[in-house]
Amino acid sequence: MLDIGPLFLIALDGKTLTPEEKEAISLFGLRHFIFFSRNLGSYGETRALLEELETLAGKGLRAIDQEGGPVSRLKPPHFPGLKAPLSLASEEDPEEAVAREAVLCARELKRWGFNFNLAPVLDLGEETAPSFLKGRTFGGDPQMVAGLARVYIRAFLDEGLLCCAKHFPGLGGVEVDPHQGLPVKETVEEEDLLPFLEAIRIGVPAVMTTHLLIPAWDKEPATFSPKIVKFLRENLGFKGLILTDDLFMGGALARASLEEAVLRAFLAGHDLLLLCGEFHKSIDALAIFSEECQKSLILRKKVGERLSFIEKQLHPSI
Predict the structure, then answer these.
(1) Is position 141 annotated as part of the catalytic site?
(2) 245 among known catalytic residues
(3) Average pLDDT for residues 35-63, to the nearest whole number?
């Protein structure tokens, strides 16, 4: 069977590995995992899970959404309470505040055993932002968001942790939550792209796309759009890892089944495919993707090229 596992950043069901999860890790060569509150207990419990994963899967990405504020998978008393990005941007010295929190977050994540934080959020949004973005952004001023993104990313890089700019090309101004459905934004302005350009300029290791339809750009949502992924690569000059948002989200499933979403997001040019739902459904989708690869020499070649690229990007970081 083709070793497709390293193409996926996949969630587990609980705080300990099930026999089915152990079998799938071996069968597909899974290496990269994302963790949610359902996976996280005490420091000792979490370290035990991470150590067992390293024994079974080897070294790989151990990812988490630790943005601060409303989206923080690790919470007190186990983990320091981190302020929301919008709150940090409102402090007297926002750059100092962001640097302080980013360093604290990075050091604590490293101590726990995580090496990839899916932050910062670079969408533009004020207090009036829709509920799914409220508090998660650095604000609505693109220059300020770009400047604070620079501080945040540099802090993580200085601490030796990977981070991720999201949600490209920008969810500012949309009303529909991509967790629930597919938002539409007629076009993307230069101001939406400015924070991402700054993140790329200073060497952000990863960029996450979003489930967003932009009719002026493409008839396909960004998740399934080779044109938008190519724009990120060629027009913006990004040379790092491009990952999807969760393919279980309503914004992806509005246009495809989970199995179709995996194939279409891969063909669009994403390096890592994010699967955060029930593990058995993720594995069913992997099995179908593997079957498609067996049928197509071109697809197998693309998989090989993508795996080599991922390995090159992650070595020697992990």
Answers:
(1) no
(2) yes
(3) 98
